[in-house]
Amino acid sequence: MSIKASRLKSNESQKIALNKEINAILGHIDDSLKVAYEQGKHNISLTIPITFSIPYMLNKDAQRYIYHGILKSLIDREFVPKLELQENASVLHITWLSEDEEKDIELQNALIAKYSK
After folding, report:
1. Which residue ranges form the domains of the chain, and what is each CATH number?
2. 27-45 residue pLDDT tens
């Protein structure tokens, strides 16, 4: 019996493990977003895992798939994510304000500071 490429490309145990990782990280992100919002913040920064144990998959491939899934979910929900890849950690910065909205806040704060005693 010969192995077909399609069998190697679609490994069900990999898909299950990858989706489990993505959903766990997104759950943690959502919890952190709720807390930040309740505290009056406009953004969060979270360290996310860099090592994954996905069957028959190199870690760099797992990282690519998982990070893509996380970023796509956040972008689809209209957040503004930035992924900072470091050697020993990956940091995800997330805001729900556009650059223009952030500039408006800075200008408002500058005006208040200028005319406050």
Report:
1. 11-114 (3.30.1710)
2. 999 999 999 999 999 999 9
List of long-range contacts for 68-71, beta carbons under 8 Å, 24+ apart: 69/18, 69/19, 69/22, 70/22, 70/25, 70/26, 70/29
For residue 5, pLDDT over 90 is answered with no
CA separation for the pair 39, 8 (Å, rounded): 47
* Among candidate residues 28, 20, 83, 80, the one with its CA nearest the CA of residue 52: 20
β-strand partners of 83:
92
Distance CA 112, CA 11 (A): 58
Q: 8 Cβ partners below 8 Å, 6+ apart? A: none
